[in-house]
Write a structure and sequence with these properties.
homodimer; 200 residues; isomerase (chains A, B)
């Protein structure tokens, strides 16, 4: 895992979702693995003063069009959720809790969460929705409920967000390859070139 | 020219420069022409509240790296100018003045201006630099000097900026194809697909 790609994202980020459907296969073609790192853009934006894309004047209207068109371009199913953006701390904390037990289960949970939000329109800010998604991947309901009510998973996510900001993460997706940062799903072709050539 | 692409940019925009080196050849492959429309991002940002990319916390540092890497990716020569960003009203007004007389001369002036800034590091906010660039394309020094001192070219550029904002332009490059808006040089592959398929 030493040369693994680091993939930072917020579960509420459309471009993060699009990247999540592509990044593993891209890395695998070059014998690389990917460390998934959910973060909270709300925490990052408090640091940077940025606003959610869809709330920015003019850019907001454009971005709704661009989310859907970029999904079509990449061949990824996408329906813009009625409730958007939404809080993703339950989902992110659940991811890290699962990850400590079973990496594959955490990855499956992440895909299921993104897809339930961006394909089925589920409210992934709702704790019961998140618990259900986790249990369908095999998580223990009682143990996870208890963990999400306690301080440990909160501290873990807080620490991950702070570490991400220290690394320069300012948005989603933000992908680090061999120390080189790439922001946006539209940088996947540059990441591919980087992996092919070992930098460019 | 009815189905021409509309290419909005600021002469101080690195991604606008990169797009300027690619957009005509891309359009030409599909039998399309391109209308170049320099604008002032400062005027647009007053409307939207946005800040220049390089001044945004965290994103600023990243963007300097991304300008140069995106240029390498696209095979376009690029040296980040020492003085950046800078005011481009003289360059934009000169463009429109030339365009009323000779479209090809205006296009050549635009390329020369971008390249002098992003390859040679010239100060294209300086009126004498702009006059020199225009005269090297064949402009009449006295007529242009007089025009730039008068109200007509100022009104023209003001009108172009206002019209751009009404069309939703919030950054550079912003390219409209068949009514569909594309923001960023990283959208060129989507524009290519659009031109190939007549939409997607």
């Amino acid at each position: 895992m030493d040369n693994a790609l680091e993939f930072y994202f917020d579960f509420s980020s459309p471009y993060g979702y699009l990247a999540s459907e592509k990044i593993d296969a891209l890395a695998q073609r070059f014998g690389r693995q990917v460390k998934w790192r959910p973060i909270l853009l709300g925490v990052v934006f408090r640091e940077t003063g940025a606003v959610p894309l869809t709330e920015a004047p003019l850019k907001g209207e454009y971005s709704l069009r661009d989310f859907a068109r970029s999904a079509r371009y990449l061949g990824v199913p996408y329906t813009h959720p009625a409730r958007f953006p939404l809080a993703t701390q339950h989902a992110a904390r659940t991811y890290y809790w699962l990850h400590e037990k079973d990496c594959a289960m955490a990855r499956a949970f992440a895909h299921a969460t993104f897809r339930s939000f961006y394909i089925e329109g589920c409210d992934i800010s709702d704790l019961t929705v998140v618990l259900d998604l986790a249990c369908r991947q095999g998580a223990d309901y009682n143990a996870l409920s208890e963990a999400l009510a306690g301080p440990s998973v909160k501290e873990r996510l807080k620490g991950e967000c702070e570490a991400a900001i220290r690394k320069g993460v300012f948005g989603s997706p933000y992908i680090i390859v061999d120390g080189e940062p790439f922001f946006g799903v539209d940088r996947l072709p540059q990441i591919e070139r980087w992996l092919e050539k070992g930098g460019f």
